[in-house]
Amino acid sequence: MTAFKKLNPKDLQFDPVKKIGMEWMLITAGNAVKCNTMTASWGGTGFLWNKPVAFIFVRPQRFTYQFIEENSLFTCSFFDKEHHNKLQFCGSHSGRDTDKFAATGLEIMETAEGAYTFEEARLYLVCRKLYFQDIDPVGFIDSSVAKNYPEKDYHRMYIGEIISGSERFITKTSAER
Question: Does pTM surpass 0.85?
């Protein structure tokens, strides 16, 4: 049986470089009628404006962009390695023409705060949007960064207050004890 344990965002202990950059995350936004998710390997967590925060980057042409724009909450969901192929699928297929949930078998679930994540997640963060800023190439101090934008399709950065965090744990059945 799978259950989630609520965590205080200040008690989160994970390496964001490894978790986000190497293991990836799903960014999800929407409502009970329609939501979408996308895989991300750019972002981070920290402390800003006296709040625990997560920051994410989404290109305007991504289908998830409109869901983040239209909703005040988004989630960052992290998974065990066994789900890596599902994250790969969500990063290489658009929700415009593919039902990512049906294709991957990921089970969407609503959090207590009204955001959306997945039953299979190991950890998820519920974030409330605080700020956005479009990446402006004028600010590239290191010109090699521009190579990430050959189409000049600059990301929008969102900073969200982490209002809740939950981690999945497995409870053993009486037969397993």
Answer: yes
